Structures are given as structure tokens and as C-alpha cells.
Amino acid sequence: MRRFVLALSLAASAVAVPLAAQMHRPDMLHGAGAPAEVKAGTYAVESNHTQVAFSISHMGISPFAGWFSGASGSLKLDPAKLDATTLNVTIPIASVQTTSGQLVEELKSADWFDAAKYPTATFRSTKVTAIGPDSARVEGDLTLHGVTKPAVIEARFFGAATNPMSKKPSVGFLGRMSINRSEFGVTKYVPLVSDQTVLVINAAFELQ
């Protein structure tokens, strides 16, 4: 558990400042409530507060990061039956952002993600296994750049409460996934820009 939190924190430190500040502050490692307090049911992704950041090694000199937004999807969850959990998430590729406007356009192009041809990335869970009182291993299929491969999210419960704005029971998780982008056909500048890509996920859901 400690190793997972440390890895998550280290990955987050490579992310753009707003995301890094949220992900690795010691006082942000836990939110409200406890896993057992989560209401069972079907949740929808709360897209305004869900972020998927990616981090790579830039020429072996420094880490570099960007992020995706606008996620949609659903989570079927019962804390008493965690292995029955299902997760389906879709992310619009054109939502990609970095600190460089020129790079953003390059990432959308056919040389990289080819957002025009492959407008979305998806993750669909196939198995969920508890690995601690507040952590789980989420196995599934990741589809990116038209290629589908098995992938794993190491997830940890962050918090649960009734959102005072929407009045809906809500739950949030931190997640981490590591992939080799070349396996999905995104090969530009490998290995000068690292093949290994770390995804750090801030996920928010609202009960429907």
C-alpha cells in the first residue's frame, strides 16, 4: 500500500502544476468518508472533476506531462461485492492539453494520437480485485489509437460524500496505469521520448 501511494505521488510530481498540487500533497491523500460508506449503485463519470494526466521522459532530461479531460462513462459499484464492479470510461482525444500549444496540435495529428481518425480512447474493466481496505486492481481492455490491449489500473479510494452542489451521492478515486505507447501504434520519437507512459487518474463519479 505504501509503495503504491509513493509511486502515485512520484508520478504526480511530473504532472503540470495544478494536477501535481492536487495529487501529491500529504493532506490530499484522503478525502471524506470511508469505502464502506459508499452507496451501492450505478454511477456516472463526473466529467468536470475527472482528469487523466500522462507523463513521459523527455529525451532522458526531464519528465513532461499533459492531460485529457471531458471523460464520460459509468461505474457499477457495491463495496460489499467489489469483485462485481464494472467500469466503462471514454475519453475524447481532442481534449489533450500541455503547456505548449504547438505540441497540443502535434499530439492531435496523425503523427501521434490521430484524433481525427481515432477520436476516443476507452477503458472497459474485465476484473476487479481488492488488494487492501481501500485499494483495488482493475484489469481491463484499453483501446487507444485503434488498438486494444490489456491494461491495469491500480486504484485507491479517495473519498465519498453527497455533493453539496448536485445533491448527489458521489465517490472519488486515485488511479495509476503504466503502458508502452508503441504497443498502441504511437511510436513518434521512441526511444528519445520514452515509450513507457504513466497515466495518473483523478476520477469522480455521481450516483444516478
TrEMBL record:
Keyword Signal: yes
Key words, A-Z: Signal
Residues in the signal sequence: 1-20
Pfam family membership, one: YceI
InterPro entries: Lipid/polyisoprenoid-bd_YceI (IPR007372), TTHA0802/YceI-like_sf (IPR036761)
Domain Lipid/polyisoprenoid-binding YceI-like, chain residue ranges per copy: 42-206
Gene3D superfamilies: Lipid/polyisoprenoid-binding, YceI-like
Keyword Signal listed: yes
Protein name, as recorded: Polyisoprenoid-binding protein
Native species: Sphingomonas panacis
